[in-house]
Design goal:
Length: about 290
């Protein structure tokens, strides 16, 4: 259980530091540097101790990274400066679970149980409570709508990316090919790096002289922190937990991240949640836990 709790804490730290990085360096710059640093670190592991780019499911893992680490993370980094780490993490973590279950049902034919359906309803009710006007009064409607749309797209990307990864694992199992979790993370990150490269080139071609520098001195420590905490050490602890603990238990623990991040967001961003936001977040997290256990 300790690795699962470490993964949860690291994912929360990644969210808080990513929010600070996007505010200092801009969403595109922070995202591109995060993807590049994480790819290098995971690549060192994968080529030295793992399977590198070998495997029958390389194509689907890279495609999963394009959807999850690529398009999903781009949307995530565009949501952070608008909603902050608390609301963004709540929306992404809680909406990704029912969206993934729905996608798996539509694409892979996995049947939804009543427990999963009821958990999905609880998630949506909890998110609605957390986004009530009284709890988001410090945000104007346009910012809330745009940030919520980006967070919803990030949740969809993460959910679809997870389903595609499951399909890749199934292909490996049928072929009798064993691959470790960090090598899978590296292969998926290559897809994210492809998206990041395209976005970086597009942003650079339209760059204005007064734009923020691509590596502002005030942001480098936050970019390094979010790169290490999330896709590197966080993923490592997540895979470590899965080695000895059932996936339903691990996912249930990691699903508490939107609650764990609340004190961190208050400390780092001064974001004080109200009673309704805490209750809504707790209900949404309970729904995610119920779905993971189901």
């Amino acid at each position: 259980m300790i690795p699962a709790f470490l993964a949860t804490l690291l994912f929360c730290l990644s969210a808080v530091t990513a929010n600070r990085a996007t505010r200092l360096a801009g969403s595109v710059s922070a995202y591109c540097w995060r993807i590049l640093i994480a790819t290098i670190l995971l690549g060192v592991w994968a080529h030295a101790f793992g399977q590198g780019v070998a495997g029958v499911a390389l194509g689907i893992f890279v495609a999963s990274g394009v959807v999850g680490f690529g398009l999903g993370d781009v949307a995530l980094y565009l949501s952070y400066p608008r909603l902050g780490s608390r609301l963004t993490l709540l929306l992404v973590h809680c909406l990704a679970a029912p969206l993934a279950a729905l996608a798996e049902w539509l694409l892979l034919g996995t049947t939804l149980r009543w427990g999963e359906a009821l958990s999905g309803v609880a998630i949506l009710i909890g998110v609605a409570l957390a986004l009530a006007p009284k709890e988001t009064g410090h945000l104007d409607r346009r910012t809330l709508a745009l940030g919520g749309a980006w967070a919803g797209l990030a949740a969809l990307g993460q959910g679809l990316g997870a389903v595609m990864s499951r399909a890749g694992y199934a292909d490996c199992a049928r072929a009798g090919f064993e691959i470790d979790g960090l090598s899978v993370a590296y292969q998926r990150m290559l897809g994210g790096l492809l998206v990041g490269g395209v976005i970086a080139l597009a942003a650079w071609s339209r760059r204005q002289p007064a734009a923020k520098p691509w590596w502002p001195s005030s942001a480098w420590r936050w970019i390094l922190a979010t790169s290490l905490a999330g896709p590197t050490l966080g993923v490592a602890c997540f895979q470590w937990a899965l080695e000895s603990t059932p996936s339903g238990v691990v996912l249930a623990v990691v699903a508490t991240a939107p609650l764990v991040v609340m004190p961190l967001a208050f400390w780092a961003e001064g974001d004080r949640p109200g009673i309704r936001a805490v209750a809504g977040g707790a209900l949404a997290v309970a729904g995610v836990v119920g779905m993971a256990v189901s």
